[in-house]
Design brief:
The complex is a heterodimer of chains A (about 210) and B (about 220). Chain A is built from ten helices and no strands. Chain A has about 210 residues and is mainly alpha-helical. Chain A has one domain. The two termini of chain A are about 15 Å apart. Chain B is about 60% helix and about 5% strand. A two-stranded antiparallel sheet of chain B has the order 1-2. In chain B, α3 crosses α4, α3 packs parallel to α7 and α4 crosses α7. The longest helix of chain B has about 30 residues. Classes of the chains: A mainly alpha (about 210), B mainly alpha (about 220). Chains A and B meet through α2, α5, α8 and α10 of A and α2, α4 and α9 of B.
């Protein structure tokens, strides 16, 4: 249990998708002007990350990995190594999952659908999603770890974008040099946030 | 070269820079730039993917139905990235290790998809190729600057492809050897990347903003 909590804390704070790996920066910068829209996108990212990580894990385990097709019983298939198809398959899975999630939300909850609205399709090209799927393969996580990793990375992403949006709302009233306005100051603030998040680096529940 | 074609090539470096003006492809720009060599290789890889992707999409642009164009573009990009990944793994295994998942993430690099959508879908293959060169090199140019700054101040050296690590700060300057200098470790860590890019954006807007006031965000 401690191991899982440790992993969750680690992916939320220490190895924050945005502030430590720079994943999902484009939408992070584009959609962080208001807290309400930022949290909408954040929730959508949590949702999609929690779903795509385990699905991509299963796809990799049972189709793409070297010798993954052994369950078919055919020796020829078992000898295949399809891992070079990883990028293509993962992005297809993500696109499909996003589509499914969108249809599901549209049918079940109107208010959530309206809140997430345009953000859902955008998530397909959010590198945090593809990045998380690739990281979990790189680090050889188990299925449970992969669910945990997807969910807590999503939380970390949500946290970072909501915090930045809150700061940017305040920044609107401050006097900033003309060339630094907009993107420039946002990058500097994000840098400071990343420094602050680095302070979490010592947390390790396994250690004691 | 007519002025139109030369503008396709030069605009991305300044007024329409994909990184600093259009805010595309920031993720990879920051993640791989702790050293010079990976930055250079990443710049070249992205250039290759944009160029070939632009030409391919431009060639088949009339055959792609409008509704599924994003998926079609993604398939083209993903296939090209697989090629780039395999080439890097075969010829530059060390750099490929350092870039880790970020080669794969070229697929979701918004510069690539952005250029395909905004340029290649509506222009001839030759122009699209030039557009790819312009934008790819403009991206590579900026990340190379960031990579160089971070490595010089963070490690006191530069990894130049083919020459290995070149030490720029003399060893005798360091504190361990009785000198006064020590590397700024912060430079190699993520926050420095944000700050340097922020400052580059500022400098660039101050320089070109006079002639092109549309670069300022008010």
């Amino acid at each position: 249990m401690a191991e899982h909590i440790n992993m969750a804390l680690n992916s939320i704070f220490v190895e924050n998708m945005l502030l430590a790996y720079f994943l999902g920066m484009c939408s992070f910068l584009a959609v962080s002007k208001k807290v309400s829209t930022a949290s909408g996108l954040g929730v959508a990212v949590i949702f999609v990350l929690t779903l795509t990580c385990p699905v991509n894990w299963l796809v990799n385990e049972y189709f793409l990995k070297e010798g993954a097709l052994a369950w078919t019983g055919s020796e020829q298939l078992a000898a295949l190594d399809l891992s070079y198809l990883r990028f293509l398959t993962f992005i297809a899975v993500i696109a499909a999952m996003v589509q499914v999630v969108e249809m599901f939300i549209e049918k079940t909850s109107d208010s959530l659908y309206n809140a997430l609205g345009i953000f859902l399709p955008l998530i397909t090209v959010n590198c945090a999603i593809l990045g998380a799927s690739l990281f979990q393969i790189d680090r050889e996580y188990t299925l449970v770890q992969s669910v945990n990793f997807g969910f807590s990375s999503g939380i970390g992403w949500f946290l970072a974008i909501v915090l930045l949006a809150a700061i940017r709302q305040r920044l609107r009233y401050s006097h900033i040099p003309r060339g630094l306005r907009g993107l420039g100051i946002t990058m500097l603030v994000t840098g400071l946030m990343a420094m602050a998040f680095m302070a979490f680096a010592g947390i390790d529940l396994k250690g004691n | 070269m007519s002025s139109d074609t030369s503008r396709i090539l030069t605009d991305p470096f300044a007024v329409k820079n994909p990184l600093t003006v259009q805010v595309l492809g920031i993720c990879s720009a920051l993640a791989v730039t702790s050293q010079l060599e990976p930055s250079l290789i990443m710049g070249l890889s992205v250039t290759a993917v944009i160029c070939v992707g632009n030409v391919v999409v431009s060639l088949i642009r009339k055959m792609i139905p409008n509704k599924i164009r994003i998926i079609a573009e993604m398939v083209v990009v993903a296939s090209l990235v697989i090629l780039v990944d395999l080439v890097l793994k075969a010829f530059l295994p060390d750099v490929s290790k350092k870039l880790s998942v970020f080669v794969g993430l070229i697929i979701t690099n918004c510069i690539v998809l952005g250029r395909l959508e905004a340029f290649a879908m509506g222009n001839k293959p030759v122009d699209s190729f030039l557009d790819g060169i312009g934008n790819g090199f403009a991206y590579g140019f900026i990340i190379t600057i960031i990579g160089a700054i971070r490595e010089i101040f963070g490690a006191g050296s530069l990894t130049i492809p083919g020459m290995g690590k070149v030490k720029l700060i003399p060893e005798s300057w360091y504190e361990i050897n009785g000198g006064w200098y020590s590397d700024n470790v912060m430079m190699v860590l993520p926050p420095a990347a944000f700050v340097i890019l922020g400052l580059l954006i500022w400098i660039q807007r101050e320089i070109w903003g006079r002639k092109h006031p549309e670069m300022f965000e008010d």
